[in-house]
Design goal:
By secondary structure, this protein is of the alpha/beta class. It has two domains: about 140 residues, Rossmann fold (3-Layer(aba) Sandwich), CATH 3.40.50.1970; about 190 residues, Dehydroquinate synthase-like - alpha domain (Dehydroquinate synthase-like, alpha domain), CATH 1.20.1090. The structure holds nicotinamide-adenine-dinucleotide. Belongs to the iron-containing alcohol dehydrogenase family. It comes from Corynebacterium nasicanis.
């Protein structure tokens, strides 16, 4: 391992405590001296958002959100914040709510607090995303990084088990991709390894008992570490592919990550021995691929949870493969353990299109 690197650590307060979100939010609003708070959540998540905000004065409630943050949705939220002279945004929800707060911060510099209710990890990155005309654009800007993240595993108890698993695998994908992303370094590799260990320990507990707070705590802790390592390492092949599948084909975020992860791991792992060893250790297996396969079996996603395990099940057409390949080749990360070509990328996507089958090492 080379100990020559440049590493960015993002400045952010993180608070984790089951059942303590309302108390932590009050303390943070006071610390920041905010007077006009806008809470962003989905309409469905409003009851939960009201519980989280029970101890603060909320000036504006905003529930006009959509996945992958369409520009018009972002513009409406920014206008509402400006009209109401908002000085702090509080996003309660998954990556869609947090992503909308980020989009408002990007245009207005109003800071945000994130109260995540999934394991997507957007709260710990300075990455924003916006979708326009069927194409998703992302960028990095420190203004979008929430000043504080408040984790409360009780808020995730309502997340259905299948979605908890898919979202947790989205977190695991952050760990995996961080190990070979353009700015991979020993610090984010250490975080990614611990994140993978925590997620691999937490998710099976959630499947066994969705109300298991320790499992939920482990998953949030792992999701945070995963996102920190991802924020520092950058997006690797896996994220480039999922980003196109989500942005251009409208596939659901967490499920797409869960489906693509074993295929990218099988594609890259034989060419990335250090990443392979780190993941194998985190997953307590002889190899990373075997460890991931065992984890998927343990989660039993395709059968008992009825979670999709192929792109076809998400409605992705085989005819879409050339588009994904073309867009992916144009956006490939600066380095990848294995050379990526139109032929081997098409083959990877064809495998991901197939109905579930055991993970195999790609040739
Ligand atoms: P999401 O926020 O859209 O949530 C998925 C579904 O789960 C929604 O229907 C939501 O209402 C529901 N939900 C959320 N929390 C719940 C709870 N506790 N109980 C019951 N239902 C709940 O999806 P996501 O996977 O969290 O985030 C995906 C979005 O985040 C994508 O747009 C993705 O691009 C973005 N993202 C961005 C980054 C980044 O660094 N910028 C990182 C990860 C994800």
């Amino acid at each position: 391992m080379s100990l020559h690197f440049t590493h960015d650590t993002l400045a952010q307060r993180v608070m984790l405590g089951a059942g303590r979100a309302a108390e932590h939010l009050r303390a943070e609003v006071e610390r920041l001296g905010a007077r006009r708070v806008m809470v962003i959540s989905s309409a469905r998540g409003l009851v939960q958002a009201r519980e989280v905000a029970a101890e603060i004065d909320v000036h504006t409630w905003h529930t006009d959100i959509a996945m992958h943050v369409p520009v018009e949705v972002a513009e409406r939220a920014r206008a509402v914040a400006a009209t109401n002279d908002i000085d702090l945004l509080v996003a309660v929800g998954g990556g869609s709510a947090i992503g909308l707060a980020k989009a408002v911060s990007l245009r207005s510099a109003v800071p945000s607090i994130a109260v995540p209710t999934t394991y997507a990890g957007s709260e710990a990155t300075n990455v924003w995303g916006l979708t326009e005309g069927g194409r998703k654009t992302t960028g990095t800007d420190d203004r979008v990084l929430p000043v504080t993240v408040i984790y409360d595993s009780r808020l995730t108890l309502t997340l259905p088990v299948a979605l908890s698993v898919a979202s947790g695998l989205n977190g695991l994908a952050h760990c995996v991709d961080s190990l070979w992303a353009p700015r991979a370094d020993p610090l984010n590799a250490a975080l990614a390894g611990e994140g993978a260990r925590a997620l691999a320990a937490g998710l099976p507990r959630i499947v066994q008992d969705p109300s298991d707070i320790t499992g939920r705590d482990l998953a949030l802790y792992g999701a945070y570490l995963a996102a920190v390592s991802f924020a520092s390492a950058g997006a690797g092949l896996h994220h480039k592919l999922c980003h196109i599948l989500g942005g251009t084909f409208g596939l659901p975020h967490a499920q797409t990550h869960a489906i693509i992860l074993p295929h990218v791991l099988a594609f890259n792992a034989p060419h990335a021995p250090a990443a392979e060893r780190r993941l194998a250790a985190a997953l307590e297996a002889d190899s990373a691929v075997a460890g991931l396969e065992r984890l998927y079996e343990l989660l039993d996603a395709p059968r008992s949870l009825d979670a999709p395990r192929s792109l076809a099940e998400l409605g992705f057409p085989a005819a879409g493969i050339p588009t994904v390949v073309e867009q992916a080749l144009a956006a490939l990360p600066a380095r990848n353990p294995r050379e990526v070509t139109a032929a081997n990328l098409s083959a990877l996507l064809r495998r991901a299109l197939e109905p579930p089958r055991p993970v195999e090492r790609s040739p």
